[in-house]
Structure formats: structure tokens, C-alpha cells
């Protein structure tokens, strides 16, 4: 498509004149050629357009004079939305249609969408009036003839075909032997071109003996003067990014590290919700003695086996002490349910020192400096596998049990033993046998 600037102002849109000639040489009839050309450049009028036409706009409140004016402007418009604005219609018309100045002067205001036309209806009318800017998908045009009309870049919003970058290089290579200098010809690449595509263009240019080349990737400059597509983003929803938990946490850490106050932390704490435990939950109860004082530690777990609550109960202590332990356990449980890591509690409360303390009746924990020290040694060992908080690691217990079993087995003689066979003692001779023996010796 070509946009010719008129001397009296404005533009006139025409199709490349080689296209009708090429279609005629390919054997297409005049009616087919007209349909193909109108498909590419559009009809340039609101008459008989789908959805957005004289009848539909008249029903929205437009007068015949306004419609005739818009129909003239739309002939040179790149998109129909360019013809429906305050500069074309005037403020009085928009106010009469029910739009305030604040409304129609807002950036991104689209009159057709505001009048109730859908995005699909506007696109269908735009393709009919302003054209698709490409012959791809045109009526009557055969697929085998598409390559005749390929351009340096993709044409229009729906165009997919273009001359491959190697085609530009080979065209220059065919002419280079007849020219003493370099060729001023751009090798056009699509916006999706990769580094490897650029590398291949340079390599092929060198192999074919080009003296110079100039590469340009579509859309690579902010000040690109010409574009084959509209930059209108209205109605196009960008794909939503699915945030992972790791990305959210990393963003929160970065904001907290850069912030100089605690406002964000307090706002973040309002977002975090308490994860309550199920009504029926798993856990365990551990009975032990610390310095002769009996203590029960009970736990409640989530479905995934992580710790969600604790209870601490002691005997032979006053009501005040037991109540303080109970309140402490509730505070820790609420912290766990709001996401406070158990590691923080374990590192903070182990090695606290107060009575009762002393030896502990537990397979792995043999001594504690306080009730709280014992509780978090126990929880760290059971839920975090913190063997550094216990005095006897499970591996040591297994080796001790095996060593004890070996000793007891050897002591009990639990191995095959062959009993020695006692030698037979010779029977004593009788007096009669002894006399007969002596008589035989004398003879």
C-alpha cells in the first residue's frame, strides 16, 4: 500500500500499481482483480460495511451531514478509529452524543468502543473499509501465486509471508560482479529475528562475495519512520504473568531491603492470613522429667506434617506458672500459624536459663537449662532434624544398641559350639583275667 500526500493537505491511499498488472498477467479477471485490490486497500467508504455503517451510526445519533463528512475523511485513514475523534467530528457532536470534554480528551479514548461496538465488530469493519494491507487471504487469489507478491516485511496485521533475509543477500550477490562498489541495499529481517539469523546473513554475504551489507530488524529503532502495523493497543489484553511463590518472596525481600521504614512490613503483615489447623489433626505427646518435674509437651500438625501448635503442661506447679506456660504456648502457636518459621523460635529460645532445670528423662535430650530450652530442643529435633540440639543423636543410639546386642550375644553363647567327645577309659581287669595273663607269660 502507498499513502500519497496531497498538495492541498491530507493523504490518498492507493495500492502498488504492479499488483493489478501482475494479477492480470497471472490470468485473473477484472472482477476478481477488483475484489483482491479492495481486500488489500479497503473500499474506503462506510456504505455496505459490516457492523459500522451508515445505518448503525445513524441509530447511535449521527446526522447525515456528520456521516458524509466522516465518509470523506475515512478514505485516507489508516484505521477507521482515526476518523472518529474530536478533531474530525468536533466537540459539539461528541457532547451531543453524550460525552463530556473530560471523557473524549482522555488518552486512549475510543469513540466506537464508547458507542457500544465490540472489538471484533470494529476489526471487521476496519478490514472492509481500510483494508487488510496484505493480499494474504484475499478472495479468488490462489496460494501458488502468493510468492509473486512477497514483500521485504510482513504486511498488515494478519500478514505472515515475507522475503527471507537470504533472498536479499542472493539478489545483491547476483548483481555484485557487475558493480565496482558496494550495493546500497538493506537486508530486512522480521522483528522476531535472532542473533543466529544476523550471523548467518553476514556469513552468507562473505561467502557470496558482497562488498558490504546493511541489516535492519523491523521495530529495532524507537524512531522507526515507517511501520506495516498499527501500534494501537486498545482492547488487546496482555498475557498475564503467573507469579511463582519464589518470585513473590524475592520481590518482597528486595522491597524490604530497600525500604527505610516499617510501612511495607506492616502492610505485608495485613496480607498474610492465619492458616488454621484442621479440626482433627495429628501430632504427638511427649512425657519427660526435668530436674524431677514432670512435663507434657503436645503438638498439633497440618496435613503436610508441619508444626502448627504446641501445648505445655506441668504438674506440681502453681496456677500462675502453669498459666504463663499456657499463654506462651498459645503465642508460639499463633506465630506458627501466621508463618513464623520454627527455626526462629528454636534459635531464640534454646539455652534460656531458669528453674526448673537439670537432667532430662528423654532418649536424646539429657540435660536442659529450663523448661523452654527443653521444649524447643524437642521441637527442633522432631520437626527440623536439628541433631545439634540434642545430646544423643539417633545414629549414636543405633550404634550403642548394636554394640550392646553384640556383647549380650557373645555372653549368652549364641553361636554354634561342637561339644568334645570324651575319651573312653579302659576297663579294669578282674583277678581271674590277671592270673590267666601271668600263666600265659610263664609258658
Shape: elongated
Beta content comes to: 5-15%
Please trace the helix and strand order, writing H or E for each element. EEHHHHHHHHHHEHEHHEEEHHEEHHH
E-strand count: 9
Give, in spatial order, the strands making up the sheet with the most strands: 5-6-7
Q: Kindly state the percentage of residues in helix.
A: 40-55%
Give the N-to-C terminal Cα separation.
154 Å
Please tell me how large the radius of gyration is. 47 Å
The parts where pLDDT drops under 50 for at least 5 residues are none
Helix-strand category: mainly alpha
Provide the residue-averaged pLDDT: 81
Q: What does the largest sheet look like? A: 3 strands, antiparallel
Number of helices: 18
Q: Would you kindly provide a written description of the structure presented here, covering whatever features stand out?
A:
By secondary structure, the chain is mainly α. 42% of the residues lie in helices and 10% in strands. The chain has 18 helices and 9 strands. The chain has helices at 18-25, 30-41, 54-60, 64-73, 86-89, 91-96, 101-104, 111-114, 119-129, 165-175, 195-207, 245-258, 263-271, 319-337, 342-349, 371-384, 394-412, 431-442, and strands at residues 2-5, 11-14, 186-189, 214-217, 285-290, 293-301, 307-314, 358-359, 367-368. A 3-stranded antiparallel sheet has the order 5-6-7. Helix 11 links the parallel strand 3 (186-189) and strand 4 (214-217). Helix 1 runs antiparallel to helix 2 and helix 15 (342-349) packs antiparallel against helix 16 (371-384). The chain is elongated. The model has no long low-confidence stretch (mean pLDDT 81).
